């Protein structure tokens, strides 16, 4: 049998209550849900859901404001970096 460890975390009371209710609806114990989360992290080598850094996104939008979809705007947009490529580069450079 694999060696196990105990790890404690602090949770907001209301958030814990709501999350535990969802676990019950899914037929999971909180421990099972946390183990599933950790297993997905290991299997995918990533967080198993999208995480957004709103500060980075807002700063990036300041440098590349959203344009309208007119033909001239679309053509001009093709000459700029894709915002998602830029965000990906920012996020990867911090690792």
TrEMBL record:
Name the UniProt record assigns to this protein: Addiction module antitoxin, RelB/DinJ family
Signal peptide interval: none
Family classification: Belongs to the RelB/DinJ antitoxin family.
Domain of life: Bacteria
Organism: Acinetobacter marinus
Taxonomic placement: Bacteria, Pseudomonadati, Pseudomonadota, Gammaproteobacteria, Moraxellales
Ranges in coiled-coil conformation: none
Keywords, in A-Z order: Toxin-antitoxin system
GO biological processes: DNA-templated transcription; regulation of DNA-templated transcription
